[in-house]
Design a protein that fits this description.
Blueprint lengths: L1 H17 L5 H16 L1 H19 L7 E3 L1 H17 L3 E6 L5 E3 L1 H20 L6 E8 L5 E7 L6 H4 L19 H11 L3 E7 L3 E8 L4 H4 L14 E6 L3 H11 L3 E6 L2 H9 L6 E5 L7 H11 L1 H4 L2 E5 L5 H9 L4 E3 L4 H11 L1
Parallel strand pairs: 2-4, 8-9, 8-10, 10-11, 11-12
Antiparallel strand pairs: 1-3, 4-5, 5-7, 6-7
Helix pairs in contact: 1-3, 2-3, 4-5, 5-7, 9-14, 10-11
The structure holds adenosine-5'-triphosphate and magnesium ion (MG).
The site of adenosine-5'-triphosphate (ATP) has 23 residues, from α5 and α7.
């Protein structure tokens, strides 16, 4: 039930943000999905969490800014984030050639590729033999940037092909898939004036293709400086958040000034610190499955008290009693999500 309370709180926040009119259909469907999910008790709670997380991306206004993006950077970020899922299932092959920059948002684009890579990995998991995922990048005849994610997994049945981009269409068991990955990905690609297409054969594999027009903004930009940049990374920042997209967003926001390490759980972060890694500043999510931010902080205080003193917590809202009490003791150490990346830069620069 604690999970449900958490999801409901997040959901309230999300609905308030989405009420601006961003996606009524998604919200209606969400209500249906939510009803089903609640009736499925614990698994339902996990599913709600997943749904909320997917929809939360609609609300991340500070990630909506568009700029010329190098698609290879977005692909590499997605590959990094999915490395753990891919590792035991498939061999990853990259075939990257020159492609124009596109007008978009790198975090959102990497979210598209992350969804495609996770789907590919999941399609392979039930297949005997050698799993293969091939990621390609290039330019098509129109001069658009084209990325493909190919897998030699189960393939998609003909009767499902027309439905895979529908919100909540999934063939995965409850708790594994919500069916939002491709609908969100399609939404992102279409909003950038691009195309997303699929080709699949059962028992042979699947290829998703994302094509985006070349950047207009890049043509108006002054040429990049030829001198060496005057800022070299100064501080060491650790981000602890089970949502890899948060780590990726922070990394992009401060990478020019700080060296950023991302851990997706408290135990993973503790392992780094116990192995001797030291950070000038640690940004930590509060609600993480397994070990919460507060539990992480308590362990850290035992393992490396100096490191516990440089933690700032990131939170959507403070709703559990213990979190409230904790926040009362450490009022300066909280950052509200979704946070403004400029504000984040200010906080990190000041602490390092
Ligand atoms: N590479 C693929 N190989 C085989 N089937 C796929 C592939 N990608 C997508 N599908 C099919 O499309 C459906 C919808 O995919 P989508 O990413 O939208 O949702 P999901 O993966 O089921 O759940 P979620 O992404 O929310 O975790 C999947 O359930 C699966 O049946
Ligand atoms: Mg998916």
């Amino acid at each position: 039930m604690a999970n449900l309370g958490y999801a409901a709180e997040e959901l309230r926040e999300l609905v308030a943000l989405a009420r601006g009119g961003s996606d009524r259909v998604a919200l209606e469907r969400l209500a249906t999905g939510l009803g089903e999910a609640i009736s499925e008790s614990h698994q339902g709670a996990e599913r709600v969490r997943h749904i909320v997380r997917g929809l939360k991306t609609f609300a991340r206004t500070d990630e909506d800014k568009r700029a010329p993006v190098n698609m290879q950077d977005a692909l590499e970020a997605a590959i990094d984030m999915s490395a753990h899922e891919l590792k035991h299932r498939a061999r990853l092959v990259r075939e990257m050639s020159a492609a124009p920059r596109v007008d978009g948002n790198e975090v959102r684009l990497s979210q598209v590729f992350l969804n495609l890579l996770l789907n590919a990995a999941q399609a392979i998991s039930g297949i005997a033999g050698d799993g293969l995922i091939r990621v390609t990048l290039g330019t098509d005849a129109r001069g658009w940037a084209v990325a493909e994610v190919h897998d030699n997994g189960a393939g998609i049945a003909g009767e499902h092909l027309s439905r895979i981009f529908d919100p909540f269409f999934t063939t995965k068991p409850v708790g594994v898939g919500t069916g939002l990955g491709l609908s969100i990905s399609q939404g992102i690609v279409l909003s950038l004036g691009g195309e997303i297409a699929v080709e699949s054969e059962v028992g042979v594999g699947t290829t998703f293709r994302v094509a985006l027009p070349p950047s207009i903004a890049a043509q108006a930009e002054p040429p990049p400086p030829t001198t060496t940049p005057d800022h070299v990374p100064q501080g060491r920042l650790l981000v602890v958040d089970d949502d890899p997209l948060v780590g990726a967003a922070v990394r992009r926001a401060v990478a020019r000034r700080h060296r950023v390490t991302v851990a997706t759980s408290g135990p993973e972060a503790l392992e780094l610190i116990r192995a001797g890694a030291r950070f000038d500043h640690i940004l930590c999510d509060v609600m993480m499955p397994g070990m919460t931010g507060m539990e992480f902080h308590a362990e850290l205080a035992r393992a490396a008290p100096g490191q516990a003193a440089v933690v700032t917590f990131m939170t959507g809202s403070i709703f559990t009693e213990s979190a409230h009490e904790f926040a009362g003791h450490h009022p300066e150490a909280w950052l509200e999500k979704p946070f403004d990346l400029e504000k984040l830069r200010g906080i990190v620069d000041a602490k390092v």
